[in-house]
Amino acid sequence: MDKLDILYIDKDILVCIKPPKVLSTDEAGGLPELLRRQLGDEAADVRTVHRLDRATSGLMVLARNARSASELSRQIREEGIGKEYLAAVRGDCPDRGSMRDLMYRDKARKMSFVTREPGKGVQEALLDYETLGRKEGLSLVRVRLHTGRTHQIRCQFASRGLPLVGERKYCAAQDDCPLALFSQALSFKHPMTGETMSFSKQPPDTYPWVLWSL
Fold this sequence. Notes:
Blueprint: E1 6-9, E2 13-18, H1 31-39, E3 47-48, E4 57-63, H2 66-79, E5 82-90, E6 96-106, E7 111-115, E8 122-135, E9 138-145, H3 152-158, E10 181-189, E11 196-200
Parallel strand pairs: 4-10
Antiparallel strand pairs: 1-2, 2-4, 3-4, 5-9, 5-10, 6-7, 6-8, 8-9, 10-11
């Protein structure tokens, strides 16, 4: 694997780009292990505090000690952290809007579903989006998450007939490219200093992103 793109590092946190197909969690081949290897310290303390789906790529912040992990986890739980994504979807997406659904996670099938009825395991899913451009039957959208449900963006857009390019789980289409979902912007308070930290990154110059001037 190519060298990971590390945007920021200090003794408390690390901000990097998670590649597609890499797990966010600390297990064999997961992002923390790859970062330790790149830092040249297999015993380094690198902790996941939030996740991206395996197929999703883009910005993540990781903690480098227990105190930072605790404070970042508190922020995520109590205040939320700023997350914006870029997604390329098939179809003509409205100019802007919100998606508010009830979602159910089927752990056995490893899929999420939009449902109309509340019940055990059903949670609210909310996001806002803005369409930035349209080309070749695709729409480029910027998405801001207000909840962090598993596969939320993928599931909510697919349920409206707007599956993501590269989607292989929530539609039958088989695009010959990675999932077109990229964590483009991330903001949070530094766990030790309280300073607002903001990062942004454009997706790679590959299909379908190259259709637009990003």
